[in-house]
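We were asked to recover a plausible sequence for a given structure. The inputs and outputs are reproduced exactly as logged, with field labels preserved.

PROBLEM: sequence recovery
POSITIONS: 141
GIVEN STRUCTURE:
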């Protein structure tokens, strides 16, 4: 009886991990050393996670534009953009919170411009990773 229970338990756990819907948070993915591969990070001397984080930071800085409407209205604040790099390596916006909607729209625009990349993999299966990035807008002088 114990053997039958053990076999059933092993079969059920294997099926639970073999589902296609695996999605990890950035923290869990980093703990396991799993990350999407930003273009050209495969040739970097940095670890894939370090390269991804640096490329994301550079991408945000390079693409940042203070919205003219927000500038005129002297709007500022922090926008939190939660997004996913899906199993195909494409960006999907999940949630945007904080600050004014004009600033939120700029945060969305920046994140949507992230290039397509090689998706993260769990073993040989591509998986989705969820990220949350704060973007702070300080009114220009």
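RECOVERED SEQUENCE:
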């Amino acid at each position: 009886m114990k053997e039958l229970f053990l076999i059933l338990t092993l079969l059920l756990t294997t099926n639970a991990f073999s589902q296609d819907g695996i999605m990890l948070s950035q923290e869990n993915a980093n703990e396991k050393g799993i990350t999407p591969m930003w273009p050209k990070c495969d040739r970097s001397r940095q670890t894939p996670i370090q390269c991804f984080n640096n490329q994301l930071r550079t991408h945000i800085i390079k693409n940042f534009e203070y919205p003219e409407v927000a500038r005129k209205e002297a709007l500022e604040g922090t926008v939190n953009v939660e997004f996913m790099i899906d199993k195909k390596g494409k960006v999907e916006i999940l949630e945007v919170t904080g600050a004014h909607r004009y600033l939120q729209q700029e945060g969305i625009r920046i994140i949507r411009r992230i290039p397509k990349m090689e998706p993260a993999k769990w073993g040989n299966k591509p998986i989705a990773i969820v990220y949350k990035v704060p973007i702070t807008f300080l009114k220009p002088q």
